[in-house]
Amino acid sequence: MFISYNQSCEKIAMGLLSYVTDLKNVARLKAEMESYIENADRKLFLWKDEETDNIVALIGIEISEAVVLVRHIAVSPSFRKEGIVHRLLDGLQQQYPASAINGTLETAAFIARWNQKQQARADEETSGSV
């Protein structure tokens, strides 16, 4: 389930962000977390596994006029390879339907695979309706 970050989830969010390679340093991790909390143009969203009721992933974004920039994606190791990143991106698209979703160098590959899957779905729907 795609949910907005709130401060009661801060430790969980920091734990998930610590999986991001450039946030292994505690000082850097805290600074990044503060950036998400203090800046109105930055937001965190979490993924809550409905089966376990645990928060198992997060996505950190920066919002501009027509673009949502995905800055960070982190998934708990025991939940990787389950399609959670695509569900996070689907949730993000529902949250910001008029905005393009782009990635940083670190997240661009995830966005590209998600876009390919979106295109394949659209192609299937188009060919199925002919």
From TrEMBL:
MF (Gene Ontology): acyltransferase activity, transferring groups other than amino-acyl groups
Keyword set, alphabetical order: Acyltransferase, Transferase
Entry keyword ATP-binding: no
Gene3D superfamilies reported for this sequence: 3.40.630.30
Residue ranges constituting the N-acetyltransferase domain according to the UniProt record: 31-100
InterPro entries, A to Z: Acyl_CoA_acyltransferase, GNAT_dom
Pfam families (UniProt xref): Acetyltransf_10
Membrane-spanning residues: none
Entries under SUPFAM superfamilies matching the protein: Acyl-CoA N-acyltransferases (Nat)
Designated name of the protein: Acyl-coa n-acyltransferase
Natural source organism: Trichococcus ilyis
Source organism phylogeny: Bacteria, Bacillati, Bacillota, Bacilli, Lactobacillales
